Amino acid sequence: MARFGIEEEFVLLDEQTLVPSGMSVEARDEILRDVGPGLTAEYLTCQLESATAPVTTTEQARADLRRTRSRLGRAAQMHGAIVACSGTPFISPNRFVVSSSPHYDAVSAQLGEITREHEVNGVHVHVEVDGDEERVRVLNRIRAWLPTLLALTGNSPFTHGRDSGFASWRSILIHRMPSSWSPPHFEDLDDYRTRIDQLISMGAIADASSLSWTVRLSERFPTVEVRVFDAQLDSEDTLLAAALCRGIMTSDAFDAAAPMPLDVIDASLWTAARFGPDARLVDPLTGEVASVRRISAGLLDRLTPTLDRLGDADLVAEGLARIATDGTGAQRQLRAYAENGTAGLRDLYLEGTATL
Predict the structure, then answer these.
(1) Extended beta strands in 75-134, E state
(2) What average pLDDT does range 289-310 have in this prediction?
(3) Whole-number Cα distances in Å, 170 to 87, 166, 257
């Protein structure tokens, strides 16, 4: 059974104003110590990132995610902050401080003015795949499904304290990066490395670890890393994203399909970012434009044998039904704000790190 791991990015907010926290590096480091292993500093000083250990079941991942979120929520409250599990904060002052490190300093210098608005938080899912060439084939397999995955998990509807009109404003912000959204289809590992070397030679990225594609080969682990997801409101949303990734990557039910053109995937990613589960996308199974509901139903039908084998069939079916009933993270955020303003958002964010 393929092992997988999950990385979650969080933003610390002032509990009263919901503005990203201006806490000192010392205060943030105290939170890191209180939470313990698995939590690290992220690009901006108001951000943190957690990482699960490699696991084989979603139940193992659930325990890890809940434990870290609970500890993080308690530690943040000690500093007058709350943890927002959202792809972008409700409001941004555009005066962020970049965490000091050689890598982040290089990224900041590369991005220039973009850094002022680059407060984005995502979920990254790593799935272990044996063999370099097989990892490239798996990357090619999941490309066409990236828009559907985004449509089901968009969770960043706000910018500057107002409705952005997008289910995933984070995706729009990331699209300004020089290597973002869908990668091209690759012939083999040599082709993959050649494309990256070109980006580095152009000065578009500093190194392979700076790639912003929605899926890439990990440079540290023998995994394929899917990066299309916004940070998720609660751990069950994150687990659904992870289970869908692993199911698609370990199923051979999609290998007969012709590679989807890059422009088609990117156009579908835009509509997924704009409209979320109400988007119309190009169906990877038929090549026709269809609703997210119809495409996800076809995906579930094809994936069920693999999900049964992995023990994730019920989790995925229940997760898709929950989205149909309760909405995605973006829809739930918009509803909470419409009903009770920033207090509604605060309560929603606190639920995501509720004490166990």
Answers:
(1) 81-84, 122-128
(2) 97
(3) 6, 9, 30
